[in-house]
Amino acid sequence: MYTEQDIWIVLTGTGTWFSKMIQYFTKAPLNHASIAFDSELREVYSFGRKKANNPFDGGLVRENLRDPFFYTSECAIYRFRVSNEDYQRMHNLVKEMMRDQNRYKYNLLGLLGILFRIHIDRDDAYFCSHFVATVLEQAGLRPVNKPCHLVTPEDFSRSPQLNEIYHGPLHGYLTQEMTSPLSPSPTFTPVTTKGRGKFFRIGKRVSKAGKELLYSYLIK
Questions:
Q1: Selection from 204, 84, 63, 86 nearest residue 135 by Cα
Q2: What residues have CB less than 8 Å from 138, skipping those under 6 apart?
Q3: SS (HEC) of the chain
Q4: What is the pLDDT of residues 28-70, one digit of tens each?
Q5: Distance between CA atoms of residues 215 and 2, nearest Å
Q6: Which of 52, 122, 136, 189 fits a disulfide with 203 by CB distance 3.0 to 4.6 angstroms?
Q7: Res. 16: pLDDT tops 70
Q8: What mean pLDDT comes out for the span 119-127?
Q9: How many whole angstroms separate alpha carbon 100 and alpha carbon 103?
Q10: Range of weakest confidence among 58-62, 111-115, 145-149
């Protein structure tokens, strides 16, 4: 029997000076993308700050959207209905990455590549929307008709396959969910990734100076 489940794409704008610097280049108010596996946004993953008070240490993170860091954030939340198999495949891919979390870095130069529409690849490195698009693509899903390394958070907002269910203050959505009936917890089963290609790329090294230059404005 064919069954479906929902995932959520969460776009946020934290209002920090880092976020405002990105907005200067993108002209979009919401410049951070995450993928969530529940409507209450308790299991949310992305590439961003590992510690709220340290913008210079970025990588793969499970985000706590109830942290004070996000309290004043604006957000847009999109529902994406997928098959049960694809849902489980994406969840398993992310959990596999989380088991080796420290291996992954934030791909700052990849963001620069978007400006010039080139693929600046690095070993085990992603930026937020690149990561979300890659997880979706590994399940055979492409809500944005672009290569993963060129996908921006704003691209998700324009996808006809995604259904916007909320736009406004993040704390407003979280408060709303607290007063709503809880949906049943999904059941996860192992799903093989055999035949879907290698998930991680081997890329070029970047200089320390290049990293420091971009760290000054590109994480959130």
A1: 86
A2: 89, 90, 93, 193, 196, 197, 199
A3: CCCEEEEEEEEEECCCHHHHHHHHHHCCCCCEEEEECCCCCCCEEEEEEEECCEEEEEEEEEECCCCHHHCCCEEEEEEEEEEHHHHHHHHHHHHHHHCCHHHCEECHHHHHHHHHCCCCCCCCEECHHHHHHHHHHHCCCCCCCCCHHHCCHHHHHCCCCCEEEEEEEHHHHHHHHHCCCCCCCCCCCCCCCCCCCCCCCCCCCCCHHHHHHHHCCCCC
A4: 889 999 999 999 999 999 998 887 767 678 899 999 999 988 8
A5: 45
A6: 122
A7: no
A8: 87
A9: 6
A10: 111-115
Mark residue 124 as left, alpha or beta (left: phi above 0; alpha: psi -120 to 50; beta: remaining).
left
Look at the block and give the residue holding tokens 């920090």. Answer: 16
Tokens (6 digits) for 162 = 């995604």
Q: Which two tokens stand for residue 186?
A: 């999904």
Residues 4-215, CATH architecture: Alpha-Beta Complex (3.90)
For residue 145 the two structure tokens come to 């008709």
Amino acid letter at 19?
Answer: S
Mean per-residue pLDDT over the chain, rounded: 80
Amino acid identity for residue 86 in this structure:
D
Q: Give 203 or 110, the one with higher predicted confidence.
A: 110
The structural domains of the chain, with segments of one domain joined by +, span: 4-215
